[in-house]
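Lay summary. Proteins are chains of building blocks that fold into shapes, and those shapes determine what they do. In this project we predict the shape from the chain. Here is one chain we studied, written as its sequence of building blocks.
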Amino acid sequence: MNGRLDGRVAVVTGAASGIGAGTARRFVEEGARVVVADLQVEPGEVLAGELGAAAVFTRTDVTSEGDIAAAVDLAVSEFGRLDVMFNNAGVIGAVGPIADTPVEAWDNTLAILLRGVFLGMKHAARVMIPQQSGVIISTSSTAGIVGGLGPHAYTAAKHGVIGLTKSVANELAQYGIRVNAISPGNTATAMTATVTGSGGDVDAAAERIAAMSPLGYSGFPEDIAAAAAYLASDDARYVSGHTLVVDAGQTSSGMTPSRLHRGAARQIHEAGRIT
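And here is the predicted shape, written in a compact code that computers can read:
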């Protein structure tokens, strides 16, 4: 049985863990070949090895234009083209009250979460415009939909991802390129296991998330990967400039998770990829 992404080539940033890893696996299952782009070298190489000839790893700092350009160029040199760019990498970043937020932490957070998306869009467009086709997907968050669901810098950046998605979708539609975003709700990963006070236990995090979920169960990376596979495929051929919210209906029902506490920065500093 053919997959929806047969013959297509994708770059996934933040692909060594969490949502990124789940999406890389799903894309390969759907027939794609994938560039696993991440700062985490060992888990990235392990994942690429697991996926075999359909994947290649490259160390990528999404704040570096050179690194993003290199990941895109690797897709073309290794697999012949680029059909899907999934701008997914990120961190929670700066936390705490606005009056106490260091400028350096704010700038670093925006660099990873928003500059990184801009760079991914820029270099994907460089390749996709000449071929007159392609899909760009970026990870936002429910914190990009409403306030109070994340720290200030994170919330600002995730709102920015949605605005940039709409703007770039408008520009690139003439070239047959679709540009969309995904806004995950609480998703059980190693990252959320840290910030939800679950002590790094993903199963415990899933239980906490389920208790807050309107549907009564937790989301997992596979749920977000399914949304990304849909947006990447021809099933979404008429969808562009859209933000697909995958949160069990949490934002529409008005339910909000507990805010990150002021001391969370010590626990989550550079702990991994955002969910």
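What the prediction tells us: The chain has one domain: 9-255.
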